[in-house]
Amino acid sequence: MKVFCLGAAGRISRESALDLVQYSDFEKITIGDYNYEEACKVARWLNDDRVDAVKIDVTKVDEAAEMMKGYDVVMDGTQITLNGISTECIAKAGCHGVNLNGFGEENQWDQLFKDAGKACVPGFGMTPGTTQMMAMHLANQLDTVEEVYVSHGAFRPFAFSKSITETTTYEYDPNLKSRVVFEDGKFIQVPPFARPREIDLPQPYGKTTQYIIPHSETVTLAQALKDKGVRLIEVRGTWPKQNMTLVRGLYDYGILKNPVVKVGDTEKGLMSIIGDYLVNSEEGKTTELYGYALHVEVVGYKDGVKKQGIIYHTHPASDGSVEGWEGLRAYTRNVGIPLAIAAEQLAKGNVKGTGILIPEDAFEPELIFKELERRGIYMHESWNNL
Fold first, then answer.
1. Three-state secondary structure along 312-345?
2. Which part of the chain is the Saccharopine dehydrogenase-like C-terminal domain (predicted)?
């Protein structure tokens, strides 16, 4: 088997590539990135005979697709704004594909994947991805489902990379149409900081106030659970307190609208300028607490009894007590590892269809959990009668 690790010079996807080196059966692992110098650094860091590095530009679709041909799967770690183009490259190369984001730009290439007999799963990291597995694991134990609450705490700096800064500003864009909840059969658009809810995350994170975010779980779970009668799906998230304070201020002052301002002879979006500053500042690149915390709650009925299932995850601490999980890597490995697991499952043919697949239709939750446990990432489940 061969895997093309697209965008793996990035801070998150290089962790996915490391996971493939440590755990997978791939015979060839190619690091493909526009930043060839950084891709070579990653290849040297991985220090494995199966790894090589190439320069690739996904905006040159035909050329990029030709480079990908012959690989079993493309593990796509490119940023949100490139996913429509990168997925086109993967589809035209005739490979399986998986990416981290899953914001819908991939769907237009569904037929190309079907024609090639291949599958593409947009959005498989911690969230989206692992969160859908957690929700389905609980929902599959119920006869009917009424409510689903997906929550996460992403404890990382505001701007440790440009793509993360882009994700932050994207999710809190005041005009974003995809920030929705699913309620009584309809998707309802909500503004930033809508529907605050306190979520009790495991230590060292603790109780956090979380708000609705524009993640694909809202849409995919509505599709996956339609036969169980689901009537409410809410997806929330939070970042470290200082990040949330900054984003709230940017929102309140209208800066998240990214108004164009003139600096010298150059016109540029104000939020873009702030993003550039944060990427190059100590404040933008550090935080007090690192890691990830997923929390999913499902309410429904089993044998006529109303039940509440809760599942959350834990991972090795970021305090240096576990090698390889120090500081920021406690966050980046959490995101990168599920992507690697999904890539190998696709390459092995362990999927339930072809074309563009939502995570719920692609993978068995328990298989994903088993693989996560091998890496020291554990699920914790409890049930209550209501």
1. EEECCCCCCCCCCCCCCHHHHHHHHHHHHHHHHH
2. 125-377
